[in-house]
């Protein structure tokens, strides 16, 4: 029986790709490069600034210019964090249903707290979440289990009674290591769909509301 539901943020709870893409295109414009379409940005949006900078500039984190590019990217994103971001269709109804049934829910993301809290506040869900675990809450982020175990600890609900919804292989790996069931949000930012069958997950959904079918499994 599931006693709590945890969500990844980018690509699972909220569609943040439009604002992340706007930050990347702002940076590309500064450097005289053409903008990238959202269709190209969306599959990389779950990989954070490193993934997006690699997409736009073909640059790795150990490159000399990476730190400066990342700083400009993140500063712009911080100032435009919820311009075009919205919950995925059906997520608001799912959250309302969980709350009506007394099931606590929370966010476990690799997004730094600097962005997680203001984004959740702007969306109107910061106070409703039972926990907000960011990428820098614990010493190790996903795919390590630490953030999910921290959420379990805060909720006072054993990991095996928590269900985690994510859209990246590291979400499934972290859940497996934490002893949680994981469901894949196939509607999210899946960069390699062909690899999905190999992820250590217990199922997948194409719409947020479909998660309800897994709550009593």
How do you describe this structure in short?
Helix content is 38%, strand content 13%. With 217 residues, the chain is α/β, with parallel strands linked by helices.
List the helices and strands and how they pair.
Layout: E1 4-7, E2 14-15, H1 17-30, H2 38-41, H3 48-57, H4 66-79, E3 86-87, H5 91-100, E4 105-108, H6 113-123, E5 131-133, H7 146-155, E6 162-166, H8 169-178, E7 181-185, E8 203-205
Parallel strand pairs: 1-4, 1-6, 4-5, 6-7, 7-8
Antiparallel strand pairs: 2-3
Helix pairs in contact: 1-3, 1-4
Q: How many individual β-strands? A: 8
Residue fraction in strands: 5-15%
Structural class: alpha/beta
CATH architecture of the largest domain: 3-Layer(aba) Sandwich
Q: Can you say what the CATH homologous superfamily of the largest domain is?
A: HAD superfamily/HAD-like
- SSE order, one letter for each helix or strand: EEHHHHEHEHEHEHEE
Low-confidence stretches: none
Total domains: 2
Categorize the overall geometry. Answer: globular
CATH class of the largest domain: Alpha Beta
